[in-house]
Amino acid sequence: MIANKELVFEKDLDNKKITIEREFDAPLSHVWKAWTDSAILDLWWAPRPWSTETKSMDFREGGTWLYSMVGPEGERHYCRADYQKIVPNQRYTYIDAFCDENGNKNAEFPNMNWTVEFKANGKGTTVTIEIRFTSEESIQKILEMGFKEGFTMALGNLDEVLAQ
Fold first, then answer.
1. Cβ proximity of 64 and 70 under 8 Å
2. Which domains does the chain have, with CATH numbers?
3. Nearest to 97, CA basis, from 86, 81, 76, 121
4. Which residue, 3, 13, 119, 154, is the most exposed by fewest CB within 10 angstroms?
5. CA-CA distances (angstroms) from residue 90 to 58, 63, 117, 130, 156?
6. Which of the 8 DSSP states describes residue 122?
7. pLDDT digit string (tens) for 135-152?
């Protein structure tokens, strides 16, 4: 078992955003690939005992990743990521939304506007994530759903994948 690195998680209600920073003991190219290749994302994105299954992924500006989180009883929750801007091995942005199995967005849940940045730090790679919301209520709803705990677990899964 790989020990989890420290996760920095900051909630900024005034600016309607969450900022997350996490270091990984792997070269930037490996970490970038783990975040942008669906076969690798499926290995770590969901907190255990859940898993991730990609239905389709087109990692390019204007492309979409459609995936489901699959629970231990077989239940599925679909999400989609609509990629906006991609600077290879540096950063990408996307809008994340809950949806149905065909990618139709579910308006009952807030969209999250993600910016994911990658920086080599001499020992490995630092990933900084900024997630913007349209309202404080949207942040609270996502946090009440267990986002912080689940994403922390998923990033620990990524440590294990990168160590292989």
1. no
2. 7-125+142-163 (3.30.530.20)
3. 81
4. 3
5. 18, 18, 6, 14, 21
6. S
7. 999 999 999 999 999 999
